[in-house]
Amino acid sequence: MGDHSTQPSAGEGKETVADMMQHLDAAKELDRSTLDRNQRQPKTKLQREFTSRTDVAVLAKNYETRLEETVEFEAVTHRSNSVWKTVAMGVEAHGRLPLYYRLGEMVAYKGYITDVIIEPDPTSEKAEKFIDYVTEDDTFAESNDILGKMAYIVRGGERIEEPFPQTELVKVTNDENIAEGYRYQPAHVYQRDGDFPDFP
């Protein structure tokens, strides 16, 4: 009788180094994807508020020339050297977030944060859009990386017809009004009634 055994020929059934590396790369990509999802899950009370409520807003500051650009142009990129993780989560959850801008003690502009990038690689495809919306007169990159530690795109910029003291805004963290002389940013606040009627 003939030999009908199915012994593998030399090399058959053995996983090559290239195959193993491909599996390893796929596993790493899966790990990164899982990590990204976990990092985006709201962990603090503030993050849960910003991802679930539609009456929240961000209070920030900038130079008046930069704020005028949010009115003049359809979209403008602003940057920060701190990471606004809660804001990023809010934008991801709602598609955009209401934004107040103050000049000194007075809240004088408003708009929407529509896109956020954290720890950006300026050479990446994702970063291109943010760089495209940096205005010609913006001087941030003269003393910082072009996109800082975080960049965000502002759309729908408007001057507030009747600027108001920042002390009228209430912080989400403790339900207390912003203190006089408050300088930090971002502040996580509740919207005033009627300021963002079309949100979300």
Structure write-up:
The chain is of the alpha+beta class and 200 residues long. It has one domain: Archaeosine Trna-guanine Transglycosylase, Chain: A, domain 4. 30% of the residues lie in helices and 26% in strands. The protein has a 6-stranded mixed sheet. Helix 2 runs parallel beside helix 4. About 3% of the residues have low confidence.
Quick take:
By secondary structure, this protein is of the alpha+beta class. Helix content is 30%, strand content 26%.
Explain the layout of strands and helices.
Blueprint: H1 17-40, H2 45-52, E1 56-61, H3 64-72, E2 75-80, H4 85-94, E3 97-103, E4 106-118, H5 125-132, E5 150-165, E6 187-190
Parallel strand pairs: 1-3
Antiparallel strand pairs: 1-6, 2-5, 3-4, 4-5
Helix pairs in contact: 2-4
